[in-house]
Write a structure and sequence with these properties.
The chain has three helices and eight strands, in the order βαβαβββαβββ. The chain is an alpha/beta fold and 149 residues long. Strands 1-4-3-2 form a four-stranded mixed sheet, sandwiched between helices. The longest helix has 11 residues, at 13-23. The chain is elongated. The model has no long low-confidence stretch (mean pLDDT 94).
């Protein structure tokens, strides 16, 4: 078994693409409009019309499915913004150059939850880890992780 993709529901596809492509440097892939009986059956929703765009990092087997529901519209749940709320809470990206990513985030006006911190122990066979959290335009919690020996 392997991971096919991770779905992120967004409120504004163009704004999200500017972030995931322009700021994070992911590459756009497959795009489609999702509508009809099949998507209504899968989601349990009626009158579904959604824009779907896949983005991915070079060399990664995991794709991100950005999905904007034109109808029915979803809602923001404030508890989802907290890192300790049950369920999927954040997505972590391994970065080769933490400082370069931080400059891109700051230039784009993306606030960090904190400056990078170093984990005080080796993380498995990955070595030492520095990380920080930030959010996408819809408040999805993301992590930048850099490893060193």
């Amino acid at each position: 078994m392997r991971i096919d993709h991770v779905n992120i529901v967004v409120s504004d596809m163009e704004r999200s693409l500017e972030f995931y492509e322009g700021v994070l440097g992911l590459t756009r892939g497959f795009e489609a409009t999702l509508e009809g009986r099949w998507i209504e059956t899968v989601t349990g929703l009626t009158a579904v019309n959604a824009r779907c765009v896949f983005v991915e990092a070079a060399g990664s087997a995991v794709r991100f499915e950005l999905l904007q529901y034109v109808s029915p519209a979803g809602e923001v749940l404030q508890a989802n913004a907290l890192p300790n709320t049950l369920g999927l809470r954040h997505i972590a990206f391994v970065v080769d150059d933490m400082e370069q990513l931080l400059r891109r985030l700051k230039t784009a006006g993306v606030p960090l939850l904190s400056e990078p911190v170093e984990v005080p122990f080796d993380v498995g066979n990955m070595g030492r880890k520095r990380l920080c959290y930030f959010r996408d335009p819809d408040g999805v919690l993301l992590e930048a992780a850099a490893y060193s020996a």
